[in-house]
Write a structure and sequence with these properties.
It holds the Pfam family DDE_Tnp_4. By secondary structure, this protein is mostly helical. The chain has 6 helices and 2 strands, in the order H-E-E-H-H-H-H-H.
Length: about 150
Amino acid sequence: MSHMLLVILYKMLVDKYYVLDNGFRNTKGFLAPYKGLRYHLQDYRGSEREPQNPKELFNYRHSSLCNVIERTFGAWKNRFRVLKQGINHYDIDTQVKVVIACAVLHNYLREYQTTDEIFMVYEHENIVVDDIDQQMAQSNNVGSSSR
C-alpha cells in the first residue's frame, strides 16, 4: 500500500467516534455515558429536571443521539426486509454495502417522499422503537402494505 493511501486511510479514521452503551468505558474514540448519573430521556422531562452539570448534559445528549439512531434503524428495518431478516449470512463487505445502500435509499425517500407513513411513525422523539416495530408488523400482516 502506498504511503499516500495510508495517510488518506488514517485521516478517514481520525476524529471518528463510536457511540456505545454503558457496558463500555468512555475512552478516546468511544463515547459511553457516565455511569451513576441520569441517562434516559424521560429522566430529563420537565423544566426542573434539566441537566445539572456537564456530565449530565453529556448523558442527556448521548441518550438523545442513541434515540435517533434506534429510531433510524427501526425505520430502516421496517422498510428494508433484508435488515430485519438478517444479513449475517453475507460476508462483512457485503453487509456494509447493504447498510450503506439502505441509508442512501432512506435519504432519497426522505428527501422526495415526505408524507411516508414510516417516516411519520418513527420521527417522534418519544416513541419506543420496539413497541412501534410490533405495531407495524401487526398492521403489515393484517392490512395491505403500500410499500
